Input
Amino acid sequence: MSDILVSARGLEVHFPVRSRGPARRGGGVLRAVDGVDLDIYRGETLGLVGESGCGKSTLGNALLRLVPPTAGTVTFDGTDLTTLGRKAMRDMRRRAGMVFQDPFASLDPRRTVAQTVSEPLEVHGLRSGRRERAARVGELLELVGLDPVVAGRYPHEFSGGQRQRVGIARALAGEPDFLVCDEAIASLDVSVQAQVLNLLRRLQRQLGLTLLFVSHDLSAIRHISDRIAVMYLGRIVEIGPASAVGSSPQMPYTQALLSAVPVPHPALERSRQRIVLRGDVPSPSAVPSGCRFRTRCPAAFEPCPDVVPALQPVGEAPGHLAACHLHGVVGTPVTEVPEGVTAHPPG
Amino acid sequence: MTATSLPAAEPVLEVDDLRVELRTPRGPAHVVNGLSYTVGPGETVAVVGESGSGKSVSVLALLGLLPARVATVTGRAVLQGEDLLTMSSDRLRQVRGPGAGMVFQDPMTSLNPVLSIGKQLIEGIRAHSDVSKEVARRRAADLLGEVGLPDPERALDRYPHELSGGMRQRVVIAIALSNSPALLIADEATTALDVTVQAQIIDLVERLQADHGTGVIWITHDLGVVAGIADRVLVMYGGRCVEDGTVDDVLEHPAHPYTRGLLGSLPDLAQPLVDGRVPDLTTVPGLPPPPTDLPAGCVFWPRCPVRSDPRCETEQPPLAVLSPGSGGLEHRAATWCESGADR
Output
């Protein structure tokens, strides 16, 4: 048995962009995920962090084949998902669960908690007989910290945090090995976020789950993750042990991102230097050539527009990689400019 | 960060015993229950709390933005010598703008999608000062430049959908500041934005505040943001202020069990590792009470992990002074807890 549970190679998810209005001509390509190599180890929690539009949710979806990749492969426990037929893919889905951001939208308001949580049991034929399924639903609810007597209730009778627990119970119903949590705490209040974070950490340890925790919240990511991957404009720009990425980031984007996260200590907040980035993230349908971050990078220099940086070992911690020429120019030279990549973007 | 060095200047805003009751199908909701605070010139007061704590309603009430059919507002809120709560609606319209500007959470819904940025700015400028269109347009372009929009002249003719979230929020701030208000109210103004953009907006507000001496009320649930910008913090729970004081006193020596719970449940990037991992978060069990059914006694007692005093469940604790506080501002908390101000 390999140590790697989920693995992506050269993964790309491009969306065609139909132009509207007189000003734009022709169709373009939105490069949501644009060449990602990623290994997720058995039993680890990998935090995937990035700002809105960086492609982190699309990557999470692509790993479960909820969106079809336009290029590259995804391997789950040795099986290439990209070539799997419908039936085989459905069986595979049992082993991978998903917890969504909005607990109000991700539960069917007309189904009881029991119906929602037991659906995966029926679909995958995991428990035959109503009574066995009901017993399993009770177990699952207890596992996520809900009283089994709530099984007959409807989503509107619950608070946001309780709904998110129901969503987690549903995701665990198939006894998955792999769980993707996509902004699973973003819509919750601070004190409730903490409850759900603790729950996920406990479940991960208790069930030996492999967890991909997708979030824009670096504090939460660092709290829950063993390793952190940082995404910018469709690519992973830095990855490594949570302690290394969290305390000594090696890529200017990660450094700016970390410095922008406010911490609840007034004296520290006042004294530390915030790196304020210029401008906005470029559109993923017009990404800069070479290093994608170079248009906002305070340290950009000659090779940045001409060489696409590859992930290379940085810092002291083993497994800490960053895609940045500051650590030596490593990567693929820009020879031709593919569609949707701008050699010299405006601004 | 200037309040401590300022002389005791006349406050910009003085709120005294503000109460808001809303009519709901489930009976009267006591959303704000006796809130008192002041905002000095150039000072930033952060109002902190979770959903339903009454923090947003309390400022909507100040500016007369709650519909009179459902809301009963009592108390006093004196802005530059005039009580906002007894003001005629005509006078209130004059005060919004030069007196107080407001920035809301979602820049997409606070801008009109079918009007250009310039139109929306110029409308606000000309509503409060008798200037020609040309002068107003020039001032609008200056304002957009001041909030850091690239190419302000051209931006005037753009529509909100053509701008990113951060740029839209800059436009909203430009509109709020277009009449140089004495008071700026920011209600979760950076919550919908990415952290790097949030840092830009916070920088912007701090700079503008230093330039114009604006008093700021910053409403947020993010204690990290509070640590960076606030001079004074007010923690709200169940429509009451449960703790207030300088930012250092409240965040470094929280006294109310709710404030402690809130801080403990925050994943903290500055927290050291234990055995190579971050320790579990301490959580506040349960949920905040609905404003239609507030508990008797201390509003927090049903969730309180340390309740022990017999008065907790029956008698409402007053906001008592714990220490004279740093910078001449008292540190106060409304709790029967005797455990003092240190964690």
Q: What stands out?
A: The two ends of chain A are 50 Å apart (CA to CA).
